[in-house]
Amino acid sequence: MSRFAPRAFGQPALGAIALAAVALGASAPALAQSRWQASDDDALLMKFTVGKHEFLNEVRGYQTDRGVCLDLGDVIQSFDLPVRLDKKSRRATGWLFSEDQTFVIDRDSNTVQNKNTGAAPIQDEILDTPEGWCVRLEALSRWFGVGMTADLYNSAIRIDNAAKLPFIEAIERRSRAARLRKPSQTFDLAAFPRADAEYRLWRTPSVDVNLQARASSVSGTTTRSVRYEMTAAGELGKASYTARLASDDRLQPQSLRVTAYRNQPEGGLLGPLSATRVAAGDVELLPGQLTGRSVVGRGAFIGNRPLGASARFATTTLRGALPAGWDAELYRNGQLIAFQQEDGSGRYLFDEIDLQFGRNEFEIVLYGPQGQVRRVREDVPVGREMVQPGKTFYWGGIVQQDRDLIELRKRFVLPDSGHWRWGVGVERGLDERTSVALGYQSFVLSGKRRQYLEANLQRTFGAMQVQLAGAHELGAGFFVEATALGKVGPVNLAANAAWVTGAFQSDFGSDTLNYRAGLRADTSLKMGKFVLPIQAGVSRIERRDGSKVNEWFLGTSARVLGTSLRAELRRESGSAGNDPGTRLRLLASRRLFGLPLRAGADFVLDGPDKGLERARLSTGKRLDDKSDLNFEAEFETATGTTDFTLGYTRDFRRFALRADASYATNGGIGANVSLAFSLGPDPARGGVRMTSQRLARNGQASVTVFRDDDGDGRLSPGEEPIEGVMVEAGLRFRDAVTGENGKAVVDGLAPFQPVLVGVDLSSLDDPFLVPASKGVVVVPRPGVATEVLLPISPSGEVEGTLLTPNGTPQAGAELELVDRKGAVVASTLSEYDGFFLFDRVPYGQYRLRLTPAVARKLEVRETIPVSITLDRLTDIARLGV
Q1: Which long-range CB contacts under 8 A does 496-500 form with residues at least 24 apart?
Q2: 405, 380 Cβ separation under 8 angstroms
Q3: Contact status, residue 559 vs residue 585, Cβ threshold 8 Å
Q4: Pick from 342, 346, 369, 344: which is nearest to 249 by CA?
């Protein structure tokens, strides 16, 4: 069921449910509450900022009943503090910002001691979460002596830069040193070593299985259903494949979808075509700007566009697998904007989602019937260099719309479905701000095959991007549209206007339309420490029969007294007499008495149907780290029925089980049992493994961590595996801990999204052991485990003084330490007296050089003629350069 989808509610619960839906935020914070527990709903991903500077590392945290808490391990890494966090002894020891500021946390004695606070009790300032120790932001500010403020709208922790702390001074030094060099990329996955899994003639597939059985009775009529869904992913003939088999309610096979494909994010497929994707079977056809929409069906596709890139300007379509019984919520830049319930198609589809100028970080949160939570993230930037100058993207495809490759039985299809649809498109970047595109499509609409040509021009003007698009239906008419996305100060703006002439008809416009126009704005109002996001928009449509439709909407999100609120007010009026009136939607969530509460309500504010239209309330209780209890209640005025559901979920590690019972005020009762598990090769121990993780829809990394004593990066005879090391891939995975053989498996990796796999430094028992590199880049494939070696090496230091040719100290120069393979393993800036230091450098052979920009500025050679060796005999190299 959808998290806020309409179902049946009853009149007896009308007052209670409506009140819960709209008044959670009014709950007094003084109410007694149970101890807070971490949940995925409260998870945050933040970055520290100082003034205009943003820290590189992301910091995980949670929104608690008393504000924000941050993972202490992530904070230590972001600030680069010499603090050792030992979870086994439940202590953190080191110093903050200077050696005289010793810092000790002792969880057993429940105390924290440092120069800023002296010895003080911890009380409830440290919360235990699956990731580690989550410390309340107010406590971190007090312990560190640094002002920190949470900006949830921008996913940032803002640091008061009034205090001259070492990391702030380092940022300022780098800013002053910028005159010597051109700013470089802050983070580039291409700079890291990469582990590729070669395609094979055969790889044993991973299989996800979902079984459901349900019985219900209403008014003396009993219905029973049992259904299954299986998804397999593997390799055959050096190509990837996915297959989905689903049954009807009587266990009879109903649909089978099979896709064979090769995806290669960097291109290079099919020789001179340099494609990024080649697929056959059940595939998706890209949309045009003004002609055909995105559709799926049996056919073929080829293209060299970046994987996951939006095909339309100002909007995007997000589509993916949605197993039976799952729901999907869509967030843009942290704000909930849409939700969807599984409809039997096996897919979620968020169509024509509006984009903003700049960043558009989408997160699709999938909720499973066994309490699973899966997150799919996609970034859709809008701005400069959407298409690189001189770069040409193309695509071409043909599908039989809404038809599966292998049809097991006849099924109902919508009008115009079942016909063949094909199209091609090409786009080229003219310069950093301009691109042009041409396209052709052919499909059946309103029972008639139609042919289309279209073209568009995109141009960026400062913080504004404009598109002029036109389409022609051969033998009919024209469709012209102008769209602009931009930012004026703190306000995101979007405007569009479109006209139709002749008998033009397409998926995005028809001959009944004369013109349409709209304006949308999105900003954030700052009222002291309180930030209130606001969205507003107006639109107008005029048809050729003279009828007009005007619409406006106003939306906002806020967190008040520990409650997250979302409100949307919408009004549509028309001259044709079918006025739907003014509607209000409210969403709310908070934790109360230790329980997460979610509520939603839709209201009609005027007209004959004025009043509450539908409402929903849900809550749940985590009984332990493997089981949950959930309760839902739903109401709909049209039916006057209340539906209550109580469910229990348990993750048995090898499989997940859910059982729920429902009761409706119209006398209906029901029961449901669902079982989910996955089968696949076990890359760590061999054989086959059974797990509650979904192996077929996600990628895996099989990681081996070992002590690399000779520094060659290979697992040589005599080198030992390291047990108990936590492996992270983008974000930390609590179950990915190496065993006695030094192996760990990281599941749940987003397919074809490059990710850096490394180790969690805090899990290394020896502080003098460091990874030979920050990580290895993996491009995961569904159902396939990529082998990764992570060498851990003893470390040393390289220090010295940088002098100019005339013997004076050279300050503010960027130096790089380069290994035998030519890779940069570390960089630093020389201090005011020319001193530089590289610490925690893995054993090996290195050379020292200036960055090219600094060498040109100083008119000296890049490479400094000195050889550096760190080993057991020489763990500190002192240089006078």
Answers
A1: 496/314
A2: no
A3: no
A4: 344
For residue 671, the one-letter residue type is: A
Spatial distance between the Cα atoms of 373 and 366, rounded to a whole number of angstroms: 6
What are the structure tokens assigned to 44, written together? 């945050």
Residue, of 865 and 780, whose pLDDT is higher? 780
**Torsion sign, CA atoms 352, 355, 359, 365:** negative
Q: How many angstroms from the chain centroid is the CA of residue 612?
A: 34
Structure-token pair, residue 100: 């005289």
DSSP for residue 173: H
Please answer whether residues 134 and 38 qualify as being in contact, where contact means their C-beta atoms are separated by less than 8 angstroms. yes
Burial 457-477 (b: 16+ CB within 10 A, else e): ebebeebbbbbebbbbbeebe
pLDDT tens per residue across span 499-544: 999 999 999 988 899 999 999 998 888 777 677 888 999 999 999 9
Nearest Cα neighbor of 266 from 297, 316, 305 is 305
Distance CA(601)–CA(612), nearest Å, equals: 7
* Virtual torsion, Cα 420, 426, 427, 430, nearest 10 deg: -160
Q: Where are the beta strands (DSSP E) in 708-833?
A: 726-729, 731-737, 743-749, 755-759, 769-771, 776-778, 785-801, 814-819, 824-829
What's the whole-number average pLDDT of the chain? Answer: 83
Question: Could you tell me the residue ranges of all domains in the chain?
Answer: 40-190, 796-880
Give the position of tokens 């960097």.
266
Please compute the mean of the pLDDT values over residues 552-561 and round it to a whole number.
Answer: 83
CA dist 685 and 691 (Å) reads 14
d(CA 461, CA 468): 14
The answer to whether 285 and 423 have CB atoms below 8 angstroms apart is: yes
**Cα(334)–Cα(153) distance, rounded to whole angstroms?**
7
Q: How do the residues of the chain divide into helix, strand and coil, expressed in percent and rounded to 5?
A: 10, 55, 35
For the beta carbon of residue 181, count every other beta carbon within 10 angstroms.
Answer: 20
For residues 456-485, average pLDDT: 93
Distances (CA, A) of 365 to 330, 348, 421, 712: 6, 11, 31, 42
| β-strand partners of 864 | 848
Going by C-beta distance under 8 Å and a sequence separation of 6 or more, which residues neighbour residue 315? 352, 353, 354, 355
Residue 55's φ and ψ, nearest 5 degrees, are -70, 155
Q: Which of 213, 197, 273, 201 is nearest to 241 (CA)?
A: 201
Classify residue 244 as exposed, middle or buried by CB count within 10 Å of its CB (0-12, 13-18, 19+): buried
Cβ–Cβ < 8 Å for 520, 493: yes
Query: Cβ of 430: how many Cβ atoms within 10 Å?
Result: 14
Write phi, then psi, for 77 (nearest 5 degrees). -70, -40
Which of 521, 446, 518 has the alpha carbon at shortest distance from 487?
521
Average pLDDT over residues 668-693: 93
Q: Does residue 237 register a pLDDT over 90?
A: yes
Alpha-carbon Rg for the chain in angstroms: 29
* Residues 725/705, Cβ–Cβ less than 8 Å: yes
- From CA 236, how far away is CA 247, in angstroms rounded? 25
CB 395 within 8 A of CB 305: yes
The pTM for the full model equals 0.69
Taking residues 457-480, report their average pLDDT: 93
Return d(Cα 176, Cα 170) in angstroms, integer. Answer: 10
The angle subtended at Cα 67 by Cα 62 and Cα 72, nearest 5°, is 50
pLDDT-derived band at 422, boundaries 50, 70, 90: very high
Tell me the residue length of the chain.
Answer: 881
Backbone angles phi, psi at 360, to 5 degrees: -135, 90
Name the CATH code of domain 796-880 (choices 2.40.30.110, 3.40.630.30, 2.60.40.10, 3.50.50.100). 2.60.40.10
Chain centroid to Cα 784, Å, comes to 21
C-alpha angle with apex 682: 677 to 686, nearest 5 degrees?
140
Mean pLDDT over 660-682 rounds to 94
Beta bridge partners of 478: 472, 501
